[in-house]
């Protein structure tokens, strides 16, 4: 394409709204524009990249034996009521009514739809296994849309759903998707690690996430320093520390006026956070739940939600509820005499002796408190693993890095097929629920993640596989007929070779064209300037600073080599 005919909307200034590199560059390179919070329009160049990623996804899905499908984005409430998720999805779901006041939503995900398709279309085990996928727009009213299309309210997802007659079948379908994901991210030039994950609100028994390391990622990922164990922190089991066994002392009530936080308590008692146990009070779908962890630990809300049998909304209790549960002002909660529906106690607390807790009385704490003697609760792993703790597989030390999830694969089992009555007839003539899996890739988030991993101070450095164009041909002076003639020739010949090529025939200074080409991230640049007098042009790769002066007719092989 000729740039004089293109909408090129590059920006020199860094837009104020953008905090991370990919977001800044997607705006600066003119790949997208914001419509509303978390809602974007894709400009022509951005759309080309998106289509390239989608093409890779499609090829690998097809190779894995999955079949493409397209569901509607607007979905009737009835389907979601059947699975129980109409209420469960909460505020993240965009809801609407039609003219007859019937409820609909804009699909945040499509398990229900695909389960419905399967129960209507698949009657017999002979039609199994089957994996269907789609590349489609999803809607989620995220609490904090941010970082451009990394976390947006409208985004493109590839979602696939597998249907099998038994668990072994599901294992195979899942492994195929896993393999396809590895290939997809490799082909996109994205370094994505597969990590163990929690099954979250969707539920099920087995799930893994594909994570890209990123300082701005919203997930913490645990990596073993010795083996290949990697897990989302939501999932990684912690190992309780053991204190040396000591004699239990008598409880003492200590006046602690205005001493509420762990930091204040450390100063007041002149000891370390390890001598305290904090009692945090949550509202779990309306139930009031207290969770106790050592003073220096962080509660893992996923583990807590799972322990409560899959809570949907877990949030800190209101001040009012805290006061009701403890009978004291905020900051003095403890296990003894607390009025809650459930008390969860982290395993580590049962290995501690003579610790300090709130007294459930304003201005007081209790010291020398001991689990088992002074209070009981449901023991379990309710805290985050921390840097330097041990790997659950090999016992070596672990490290923790920030990451962003680009893909997720789940073994759902019969969660949806049972609740929605989606059955087939097996070999023995019996009716059985489908064994399902579901598999998502954030296509738009993948695009942003590629930029996070492939950019420099001048702009994006696209991997060839997803670049909007492979080559930009830049005539230095468009008024120079000889230069234009050579540039046209190269442009046309490359086009006939099916190379994605643009020619920057805009009436701009060469410097401006170079800057745009770098910002947009075109992998190869061919500069046609004065050297054509000697039959030469310049060839430059975006990911290198070398400029090669080559004979004009050498250029085609150069380009071809890069594309191969
Ligand atoms: P997150 O924890 O980041 O909210 P999720 O667990 O809600 O992700 P899934 O429901 O598994 O995500 O969706 C599948 C994929 O869709 C994710 O791996 C991610 O790449 C993408 N995705 C999810 N939410 C968003 C969003 N708000 N904006 C862009 N992509 C998203
Ligand atoms: Mg989410």
TrEMBL record:
Top-level class of the enzyme under EC nomenclature: ligase
One GO molecular-function entry: proline-tRNA ligase activity
CDD domains assigned to the protein according to its UniProt record, in alphabetical order: ProRS-INS (cd04334), ProRS_anticodon_short (cd00861), ProRS_core_prok (cd00779)
Cellular compartment(s): Cytoplasm
Stretches assigned to the Aminoacyl-transfer RNA synthetases class-II family profile domain: 38-463
Location (main, coarse): cytoplasm
Gene Ontology CC annotation, any one: cytosol
SUPFAM superfamilies: Class II aaRS ABD-related (SSF52954), Class II aaRS and biotin synthetases (SSF55681), YbaK/ProRS associated domain (SSF55826)
Catalytic activity: tRNA(Pro) + L-proline + ATP = L-prolyl-tRNA(Pro) + AMP + diphosphate
Keywords: Aminoacyl-tRNA synthetase, ATP-binding, Cytoplasm, Ligase, Nucleotide-binding, Protein biosynthesis
Cleavable signal peptide: none
Protein family (similarity comment): Belongs to the class-II aminoacyl-tRNA synthetase family. ProS type 1 subfamily.
Subunit-structure text: Homodimer.
Task of the protein: Catalyzes the attachment of proline to tRNA(Pro) in a two-step reaction: proline is first activated by ATP to form Pro-AMP and then transferred to the acceptor end of tRNA(Pro). As ProRS can inadvertently accommodate and process non-cognate amino acids such as alanine and cysteine, to avoid such errors it has two additional distinct editing activities against alanine. One activity is designated as 'pretransfer' editing and involves the tRNA(Pro)-independent hydrolysis of activated Ala-AMP.
Record text about domains: Consists of three domains: the N-terminal catalytic domain, the editing domain and the C-terminal anticodon-binding domain.
Protein name: Proline--tRNA ligase
Organism: Clostridium paridis
């Amino acid at each position: 394409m000729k740039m004089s005919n293109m909408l090129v909307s590059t920006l020199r200034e860094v837009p104020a709204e953008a905090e991370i590199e990919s977001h800044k560059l997607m705006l600066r390179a003119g790949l997208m524009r914001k419509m509303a919070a978390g809602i974007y329009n894709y400009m022509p160049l951005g759309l080309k990249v998106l289509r390239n990623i989608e093409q890779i996804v499609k090829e690998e899905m097809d190779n894995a034996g999955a079949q493409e499908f397209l569901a509607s984005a607007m979905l009737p409430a009835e389907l979601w009521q059947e699975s129980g998720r109409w209420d469960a999805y909460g505020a993240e779901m965009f809801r609407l009514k039609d003219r007859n006041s019937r409820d609909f939503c804009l699909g945040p995900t499509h398990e229900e739809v695909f389960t419905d398709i399967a129960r209507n279309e698949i009657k017999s085990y002979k039609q199994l296994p089957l994996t269907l996928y789609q590349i489609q727009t999803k809607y989620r009213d995220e609490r904090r849309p941010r970082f451009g299309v990394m976390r947006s309210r409208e985004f493109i997802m590839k979602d696939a759903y597998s249907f099998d007659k038994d668990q072994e079948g599901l294992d195979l379908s899942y492994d195929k998707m896993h393999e396809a994901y590895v290939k997809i991210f490799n082909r996109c030039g994205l370094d994505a690690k597969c990590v163990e994950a929690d099954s979250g609100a969707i539920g099920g028994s087995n799930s893994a996430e594909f994570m890209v390391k990123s300082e701005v990622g919203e997930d913490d990922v645990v990596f073993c320093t010795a083996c290949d164990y990697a897990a989302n922190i939501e999932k990684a089991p912690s190992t309780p520390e053991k204190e040396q066994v000591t004699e239990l002392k008598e409880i003492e009530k200590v006046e602690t006026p205005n001493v509420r936080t762990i930091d204040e308590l450390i100063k007041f008692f002149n000891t370390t956070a390890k001598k305290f146990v904090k009692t945090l009070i949550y509202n779990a779908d309306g139930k009031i739940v207290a969770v106790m962890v050592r003073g220096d630990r962080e509660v893992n809300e996923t583990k807590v939600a799972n322990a409560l049998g899959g809570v949907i909304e877990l949030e800190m209790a209101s001040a009012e509820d805290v006061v009701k549960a403890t009978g004291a002002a905020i900051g003095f909660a403890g296990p003894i005499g607390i009025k809650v529906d459930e008390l969860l106690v982290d395993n580590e607390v049962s290995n501690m002796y003579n610790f300090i807790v709130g007294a459930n009385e304003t201005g007081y704490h209790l010291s020398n408190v001991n689990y088992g003697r002074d209070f009981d609760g449901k023991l379990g792993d309710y805290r985050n693993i921390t840097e330097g703790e041990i790997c659950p597989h090999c016992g070596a030390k672990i490290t923790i890095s920030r990451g962003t999830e680009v893909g997720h694969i789940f073994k759902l089992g019969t969660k949806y097929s049972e609740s929605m009555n989606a059955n087939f007839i097996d070999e023995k003539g019996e009716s059985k629920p489908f064994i399902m899996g579901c598999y998502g890739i954030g296509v738009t988030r993948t695009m942003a993640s590629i930029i996070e991993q492939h950019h420099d101070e001048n702009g994006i450095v696209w991997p060839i596989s997803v670049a909007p164009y492979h080559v930009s041909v830049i005539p230095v002076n468009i008024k120079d007929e000889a230069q234009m003639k050579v540039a046209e020739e190269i442009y046309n010949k490359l086009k006939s070779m099916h190379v994605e090529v643009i020619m920057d025939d805009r009436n701009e200074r060469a410097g401006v064209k170079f800057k745009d080409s770098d910002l947009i991230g075109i992998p190869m640049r061919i500069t046609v300037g004065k050297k054509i007098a000697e039959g030469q042009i310049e060839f430059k790769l975006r990911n290198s600073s070398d400029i090669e002066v080559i004979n004009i007719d050498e250029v085609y092989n150069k380009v071809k080599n890069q594309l191969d």
